[in-house]
Amino acid sequence: MTRRGIAKGRTIELEEPLPFPEGQVLNILVEPAPDLGQRGSPALILRVSQEPPHMAPGAISALEEAIAKSRLPVRSEGPFDDSPA
After folding, report:
1. Buried (b) or exposed (e) across 6-31, using 16+ Cβ within 10 A?
2. What's this model's pTM, rounded to 2 decimal places?
3. What gap in Å lies between CA 68 and CA 22, rounded to an integer?
4. What's the rounded Cα separation, in Å, for the pair 4 and 16?
5. pLDDT per residue as tens digits for the range 17-59
6. Kindly report the CA angle at 32 between 30 and 36, in degrees rounded to 5?
Protein backbone atom coordinates (compact mmCIF):
# COMPACT_ATOMS: atom_id res chain seq x y z
CA MET A 1 0.00 0.00 0.00
CA THR A 2 1.33 3.43 -0.91
CA ARG A 3 0.17 6.68 0.64
CA ARG A 4 1.36 10.26 0.09
CA GLY A 5 2.14 12.45 3.03
CA ILE A 6 4.07 15.51 4.16
CA ALA A 7 6.94 15.31 6.65
CA LYS A 8 6.48 17.62 9.65
CA GLY A 9 9.40 17.12 12.00
CA ARG A 10 9.08 13.64 13.51
CA THR A 11 5.59 13.03 12.11
CA ILE A 12 4.15 12.41 8.65
CA GLU A 13 0.74 13.86 7.84
CA LEU A 14 -1.00 11.58 5.32
CA GLU A 15 -3.35 12.86 2.63
CA GLU A 16 -5.78 9.96 3.24
CA PRO A 17 -6.66 7.98 6.37
CA LEU A 18 -5.21 4.48 6.81
CA PRO A 19 -7.50 1.43 6.86
CA PHE A 20 -6.06 0.18 10.18
CA PRO A 21 -7.41 0.46 13.71
CA GLU A 22 -6.00 3.13 16.04
CA GLY A 23 -2.82 1.89 17.71
CA GLN A 24 -2.00 -0.73 15.04
CA VAL A 25 1.78 -1.34 14.80
CA LEU A 26 2.95 -0.77 11.22
CA ASN A 27 6.15 -1.27 9.22
CA ILE A 28 6.98 1.94 7.37
CA LEU A 29 9.30 2.49 4.40
CA VAL A 30 9.88 6.20 3.88
CA GLU A 31 11.30 7.62 0.66
CA PRO A 32 10.86 10.97 -1.10
CA ALA A 33 8.08 11.19 -3.67
CA PRO A 34 9.27 11.52 -7.28
CA ASP A 35 9.51 15.04 -8.62
CA LEU A 36 6.49 15.36 -10.89
CA GLY A 37 7.42 18.74 -12.27
CA GLN A 38 5.69 22.05 -11.75
CA ARG A 39 2.00 21.63 -10.92
CA GLY A 40 -0.12 22.38 -13.97
CA SER A 41 2.83 22.43 -16.40
CA PRO A 42 2.15 21.05 -19.89
CA ALA A 43 4.89 18.42 -19.45
CA LEU A 44 3.30 17.15 -16.24
CA ILE A 45 -0.18 17.07 -17.75
CA LEU A 46 1.06 15.08 -20.75
CA ARG A 47 2.98 12.63 -18.57
CA VAL A 48 0.01 12.04 -16.28
CA SER A 49 -2.31 11.67 -19.26
CA GLN A 50 -0.20 8.75 -20.49
CA GLU A 51 -0.49 6.84 -17.20
CA PRO A 52 -3.50 4.69 -16.22
CA PRO A 53 -6.37 5.35 -16.30
CA HIS A 54 -5.82 6.13 -19.96
CA MET A 55 -7.59 8.94 -21.75
CA ALA A 56 -10.02 8.34 -24.59
CA PRO A 57 -8.47 8.12 -28.08
CA GLY A 58 -7.91 11.55 -29.51
CA ALA A 59 -7.93 13.28 -26.12
CA ILE A 60 -4.13 13.51 -25.95
CA SER A 61 -3.90 15.01 -29.45
CA ALA A 62 -6.65 17.48 -28.51
CA LEU A 63 -4.68 18.38 -25.38
CA GLU A 64 -1.47 18.86 -27.39
CA GLU A 65 -3.38 21.06 -29.87
CA ALA A 66 -4.80 23.17 -27.02
CA ILE A 67 -1.30 23.60 -25.55
CA ALA A 68 0.09 24.63 -28.96
CA LYS A 69 -2.71 27.18 -29.45
CA SER A 70 -2.11 28.70 -26.02
CA ARG A 71 1.57 29.43 -26.62
CA LEU A 72 2.42 33.11 -26.77
CA PRO A 73 4.51 34.43 -29.66
CA VAL A 74 8.14 35.22 -28.89
CA ARG A 75 9.01 38.90 -29.27
CA SER A 76 12.56 40.20 -29.54
CA GLU A 77 11.50 43.76 -28.60
CA GLY A 78 10.58 44.76 -25.08
CA PRO A 79 7.72 47.10 -24.13
CA PHE A 80 10.18 49.92 -23.37
CA ASP A 81 12.39 49.67 -26.48
CA ASP A 82 10.62 52.56 -28.30
CA SER A 83 10.51 54.96 -25.35
CA PRO A 84 12.91 57.94 -25.34
CA ALA A 85 15.85 57.73 -22.97
Report:
1. eeeeeeeeeeeeeeeeeeeeeeeeee
2. 0.36
3. 50
4. 8
5. 899 999 999 998 888 877 666 777 777 888 777 777 777 878 8
6. 145
